[in-house]
Amino acid sequence: MAFRQSSKQRHRGPDQTGLCVNDEYGFVLVQERLSIVGVKTGRQPLTSTNGMTHLVANGEIYNFLHMASLINDALKFEYYTPRSDCDVLVAFYELFGADRLLQIVRGMFAFVLYDCSTHRLLVARDPVGIVPLYYGWDDAGSLWFASELKCLVGCCAEVNVFPPSHSYYGPRESFVPKPYFQALWMTEISTARVDLELLKHHLERAVESHLQSEVPFGALLSGGLDSSLIASIATRILRARTDNSTFRLKTYSIGLEGESPDLTYARMVADHIGSDHTEVRFTIPEGIDLVRDAVYYAETYDVTTIRCIVAVMLLARAIRSEGIKVVLSGEGADELFGGYLYFHRAPSAAEFHRETVRRVRGLHLSDCLRANKGCAAWGLELRVPFLDTDFLQHVMSIRPEDRAPGIPSHDDHSTLEKRILRQAFADGNYLPPEVLWRQKEQFSDGVGYAWIDAIAQWASKRVTQTEYAAAGDRFPFNTPTTKEAFYYRKLFEQMFPGESFARTVQRWIPRTDWGCSEDPSGRKQDVHRGRNRQEQE
After folding, report:
1. Where in this protein does the record put region Disordered (predicted)?
2. What are phi and psi of 165, to 5 degrees?
3. Domain boundaries in the chain?
4. Is 323 annotated as a binding residue?
């Protein structure tokens, strides 16, 4: 049954399906593999040399070479060569134990390890929750884990999101996830003043660590600040690493046919950094045709996520058709630096900080979910350097007065969001000024303003007033507040029946208690420059 259920997520790993059935110890492990590091040697499930420790993992371990060196230092008279980046999890655990493993590992990951010698289970998810993980129990009392919620439909009545920064180590009968990653910025207001050179250095290091791959890779390029910086930094590193000043990173952007702010700026950045750039254009009917698939693959009914993931899926399919397996992207910067336009309304520096913490801790239910699942729908891995653990720690320790938009002054850029990130890369010709100082456009807006209007109208027309009037009775949890939201909730209920599945979803909305519009579109916020121009006209 586990093999059959896992087939529902085979799109995530189309290269290999690995199976380990252990009747003696009572567990089954299934893994759908997208082979990127250790292509020929890293097939999963991974088993220790003594046959007692078994692992399935999803993601990338960015410091696996460092971990391998620590393993070799401890072995002294033997030499360990990792079969893949995830293979170090098994060897490190056996030598140093679960606690030290979780302290030192860096990457995006969700893994399940079973130690037959101690009858203990080790489950962990990275600090932000870049890759998904769910769990549930079936009627027989068996504990299930899966990267996607759909694998638990039909076998688990009760399901939960395995929380980021949490782990469990112990007998399966006592399973309760507990936090292993904690930081002062989560509970206290940060006080460190920004050091722009140090900020720049940390981001460059994060990007470099995310470039390990044995297969072709590229970068998403929306034309916004975040993805553009990642692509520019990656290009410089790869040119230096290959000693090839003409190296061209493959970059990709998507936009609505005939109208997309993102395509214009992405082309400008591509010309500036000298990338091998591809534009993918889509029509509104093509996007509308994917709405049902968007709910199925995103496993959510959140309006923002559905609006965004349609374009992500269209882009991912085009990229995968060219043989690319890995892409870099700019997710996470808006949460770390308070980049969403509603942050301009933060009533105080302390409230700004608390809201960035809340957004970071909710990434696994919003941007990370959308980006990971939208790309994985076509067997494409997405990496997010802004959410590198060490970079995350550095940025979130910076005081909110520096991270927040500045107060108006003679400088036209003083009130822009993500001000210190822009300033850190202002020298060195990383980006054209038009992009470096471009106001935030949310992805679903930037692909074409008409897309948001069209999908909202189309979805709303599929809900009658009678249906909508009974929304509170039909959906008492996360009751839809618009007809568009109601329609997505209906689709979700068809695919993922039961309130337990509905409770895995979090709605992404701005802070209405700050006087912001509930609509997640950046155009609905009063500081949006396009909106201000339209009102003046």
Report:
1. 514-537
2. 65, 15
3. 1-182, 185-457, 466-509
4. no
228 annotated binding-site participant: no
How far apart are alpha carbons 2 and 138 in whole angstroms? Answer: 12
Q: How many CB atoms lie within 10 A of CB 301?
A: 25
* Backbone phi, psi, residue 177, to 5°: -65, 140
Query: Is 329 annotated as contributing to ligand binding?
Result: yes
3-state secondary structure 355-392: HHHHHHHCHHHCHHHHHHHHHHCCCCEEECHHHCHHHH
**Residue partners of 371: CB distance under 8 A and separation at least 6:** 312, 329, 331, 382, 384
Per the annotation, does 85 bind a ligand?
yes
Q: Please determine, for residue 444, whether its predicted confidence score (pLDDT) is greater than 60.
A: no
Q: For the domain 185-457, what is the CATH code?
A: 3.40.50.620
Q: For 1-182, CATH number?
A: 3.60.20.10
Domains 1-182 and 185-457 share a fold: no
Three-class DSSP category at 263: helix
Say if residue 359's pLDDT is above 80.
Answer: yes
| 3-state secondary structure at position 180 | coil
Per residue in 250-306, pLDDT (tens digit) is 999 999 988 788 899 999 999 999 999 999 999 999 999 999 999 999 999 999 999
